[in-house]
Amino acid sequence: MTGPEHYREAEVLLADANPPDEESRWDMALLAAAQVHATLALAAATALAGVTLTLPQDSSLAAGWNSAIGVTQ
Question: What's the pTM?
Fold first, then answer.
């Protein structure tokens, strides 16, 4: 799974969890899984921080991150 895929998965899991006042074990599991994916996305972004600044906008890596964070070109 790529960094952008982890980012999107964290967003999906967070959206699927119920609001805090309705927490259940399932919701807590969703939130924990979302945290893991968010951490992995952060690790991937951090590892590529110096590289992504020099990527052409049409590269698949730049396109993946732009898509994950909602940047349209």
Answer: 0.68
Mean pLDDT of 59-66: 76
* Residue among 16, 20, 2 at smallest CA distance from 59: 2
Q: Which of 20, 27, 31, 68 is nearest to 48 (CA)?
A: 68
DSSP assignments along the chain, one per residue = --HHHHHHHHHHHHHHSPPGGG--HHHHHHHHHHHHHHHHHHHHHHHTHHHHTTS-TTSHHHHHHHHHTT---
What is the CB-side half-sphere exposure of residue 36 using CA atoms within 13 A? 8
Instruction: Give residue 58's pLDDT.
Output: 62
Among 4, 13, 5, 6, residue whose Cα is nearest residue 66:
4
